[in-house]
Design a protein that fits this description.
This protein has 265 residues and is of the alpha+beta class. It is built from 10 helices and 7 strands.
C-alpha cells in the first residue's frame, strides 16, 4: 500500500521504470552496501616459534580489494596480520616471485583470480620444498640446478666484428617458447620425479633452459651440454607426465623441450 492506497499493476510498472532510469547509480548504491567476503586458508609456519605447520583462515571483503590472490595477500598483511610472509615483486607475471600453490595448482598469485563463488581459497607454498617461513620456499637447490646447466652463451672465438654474435631471425625464432621462462619453479615442483629425486634430477625448468642454449645457433658447447645430461638421473628421470606443461603460468611447454633433448641425444 502507498499512502493508504493499494499498489496497482500500473504503479508497480512505474516503480520498475524508475529503478531502470536510475540505472548504474542504483546498482552502485547496492554494491557499496553489499559485502563480498572471501575466506583464505593460508599455510603458516614460523621456524622460530612453531614445531609444526598449521593453517590460518582470514576473511577479506573483495569489494575493497583487488581481484587477484596477491592483492588479497597484500591486504591481509597490511591490514589483518603483519606477520604473514610471502615473496612478491612485479605483480605482472614477469618476475616469478609470488609462485605458490593455490587451490591445489602451482601458479603465480598475481595471475590467480579470486573467484566470487563463496568458496574458501587455500594457499600453500610450492610443494616438496623446504619452507623458510609461511609461503616462502627455499629456492637454493633450484637455483643451483639452474646454475649447473651453464645458462649463458659459450663460444670458442670472439665475434667477427669484435662486438656481437649475429643470429638470423629464423634461428632466433627457434628460441621462442623457452627464453620466456621466469624461473618461478611452478613446473619443477609439480613434477613427481622432481619430488623424489630433486637432489639428482635437474627438473623441467633447468632442462628447458639447457635446451634453450642447445638450440641457440650462436652457442658452441652443444656437445658438452649433452654430455652433462648422459647419466641416469639428470634428465632421464623425466617420464613425460606433463604436469610441468599443464601448470606453467606462462603457457610454456617444458615437456616438449625435454623430449627434444632426448631426441637429439
Amino acid at each position: 500500500r502507498v499512502s493508504g492506497r493499494p499498489i496497482t499493476n500500473r504503479m508497480f510498472q512505474l516503480s520498475r521504470r524508475g529503478m531502470r532510469a536510475m540505472g548504474p547509480m542504483a546498482r552502485t548504491l547496492q554494491v557499496r552496501h553489499a559485502s563480498n567476503v572471501k575466506q583464505f586458508k593460508i599455510y603458516r609456519f614460523n621456524p622460530d616459534t612453531d614445531t609444526k605447520s598449521r593453517y590460518q583462515t582470514y576473511e577479506v571483503d573483495m569489494n575493497d580489494c583487488g581481484p587477484m590472490a596477491l592483492d588479497a595477500l597484500i591486504k591481509i598483511k597490511n591490514e589483518l596480520d603483519a606477520t604473514l610472509t610471502f615473496r612478491r615483486s612485479c605483480r605482472e607475471g614477469i618476475c616469478g616471485s609470488c609462485a605458490m600453490n593455490i587451490d591445489g595448482v602451482n601458479t603465480l598469485a598475481c595471475l590467480s583470480k579470486v573467484e566470487k563463488d563463496g568458496s574458501t581459497m587455500t594457499i600453500n607454498p610450492l610443494p616438496h620444498m623446504y619452507v623458510v617461513k609461511d609461503l616462502v620456499p627455499d629456492m637454493t637447490n633450484f637455483y643451483l640446478q639452474y646454475k649447473a646447466i651453464k645458462p649463458y652463451l659459450i663460444t670458442k672465438a670472439p665475434p667477427a666484428d669484435g662486438k656481437e654474435h649475429f643470429q638470423s631471425p629464423e634461428d632466433r625464432e627457434k628460441l621462442d617458447g623457452m627464453y620466456e621462462c621466469i624461473l618461478c619453479a611452478c613446473c619443477s615442483t609439480s613434477c613427481p620425479s622432481y619430488w623424489w629425486n630433486s637432489d639428482k634430477y635437474l627438473g623441467p625448468a633447468a632442462l628447458m633452459q639447457a635446451r634453450r642454449w642447445m638450440a641457440d645457433s650462436r652457442d658452441e658447447a652443444t656437445e658438452e651440454r649433452k654430455e652433462q645430461l648422459r647419466d641416469p638421473f639428470s634428465m632421464y628421470r623425466c617420464h613425460t607426465i606433463m604436469n610441468c606443461t599443464k601448470t606453467c603460468p606462462k603457457g610454456l611447454n617444458p615437456g616438449l623441450a625435454i623430449a627434444q633433448i632426448k631426441k637429439d641425444m
